[in-house]
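Homework help board

Subject: predicted structure for assignment chain

Our instructor gave us this sequence and asked us to write out the predicted structure in token form, then describe one feature. I got the tokens but I'm not sure how to describe them. Can anyone check?
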Amino acid sequence: MSAANVTASHHCKSDWRAHGAKVDHYLRPMRVVSLVPSWTEFLHDLDSHVVGQTKFCVRPMSAFRSVDRIGGTKTIDVEKILALQPDLVVANKEENDREQVQELMVRCPAHCEVVVTDIRSLDSVWRAMHQLGESLEKRQETNQMVTQIQERWGEAKPLVGKAGYAVWSKPWMAAGTDTFIHHVMQHWGIGNALEGTSRYPSLAEESSRGVPHAPLWLLPSEPFPFQQKHLAALQEEHPLTALRLVDGEAFSWYGSRMLHVAAHLQEVADWVAKCSPAS
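My token output:
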């Protein structure tokens, strides 16, 4: 289901769809609960009244310390969310557990809108941002943010080389095709060495031998927190493989985080170009 095409429905048990109807908020601010770290930062940057967020919603830090936490992205506390009396709940197909979100849809009062985004490309980000801006009644602010991101990211860059993008270790897993990470890499001219695979292929059969399939690998800070010690150990085993630690948020967070990562993404693209085998 595309993030741009979620429709309103009061009870949806078999599909991920928006639930609820918009309500007049002149008497009080719209109460928002976010189940997605990327969208939490976006909501705060739009000065929304966020009353609940997950324990993984670390940006902005001031909100992480002060806003009620409603569990993890895969382990939301439905009772606590309902007690917060939200008018809008923001979820994501990849980040959140389907059954938990469907339970929330069924149990939320009719006025509460549950929006479930599905982010797999840059275009789906723009559509989802506009959709949330509509729900939040912050259309102008959202339009301005989308324009700023598009200006900072510019046009898609020509291919400079290919790299694998790890998402987990033991078993070794990577970002494949039809992922937001894949499209971010493509935009910055970094070809995905695992293009044509499933979304997040597990390369377990080769994990014991270290880094499979590609001469270049990007090791992000999340979801698996790759650090210098991991890079050093892998480099010792595979001296001919080029490895680089990267900011996982730069490649996998959407929304307002995209305003702050263009320089890092360009640096990574330059490194890929420098380290790629001569064609």
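Reply (TA_rk): Your tokens look well-formed. For the description, you could write something like this. The chain has two domains: 15-152, 161-275. That's the kind of observation they're looking for.
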